[in-house]
Amino acid sequence: MEAFTMKRRYLPNCTISELFFNDSFVCHTIEQPWRSNEPFQSCVPPGIYKLLPISTPNHKDSFILLNHNLGVGLNEGDAPRYACLIHVANFPHEVQGCIGPGIELHPNTWGVSRSKDAMLKLRQLYDNTTDWILDIKL
Question: Given a cut of 90, is residue 127 above it in pLDDT?
Fold first, then answer.
């Protein structure tokens, strides 16, 4: 089993994290601020998630987070939160309960930059032959 780990900072306007793979820094991430786990409004709750590749009509070549014990599922009706993705996004308003990766923190506002490059980096690390998890720490 392979694991990505996210270390978070909760801020009033957003949640910023650093993403690691085997203790090596991969990229930064941006999410909505914590809003009591409100679907499509709040950052993803901390915990350990199964991580799977997925392509949706709006977000090609993304990853989905799954943990039914934390109330995060695949489709509407599966769990209170669903379709929590890691997808290309640079600013908190571009993620609705999802995670946007970026190579750098944005220099002028709350966000990340070079999100497409970060997604490419994540896809290159991901290997479909093993089980993957994402451990989101407080």
Answer: no
* pLDDT number for residue 92: 97
- How many other CB atoms sit within 10 Å of the CB of residue 79? 18
> How confident is the model at residue 34, as a pLDDT?
97
> Biggest alpha carbon distance in the chain?
40
| 47 pLDDT higher than 90 | yes
Mean pLDDT of 81-94: 97
- Percent of the chain surpassing pLDDT 90: 89
DSSP 31-53: EPPP-TT-TTTSPPPSEEEEEEE
- Residue boundaries of the structural domains of the chain: 2-109+116-137
List CB contacts of 100: < 8 A, sequence separation 6 or more.
Answer: 29, 30, 31, 86, 87, 88, 89, 90, 91, 94, 111, 112, 115
Residues 2-109+116-137, CATH architecture: Beta Barrel (2.40)
* Residue 43 CA: distances (Å) to CA of 2, 4, 69, 126: 23, 17, 17, 23
Sign, CA torsion 35/37/39/40: positive
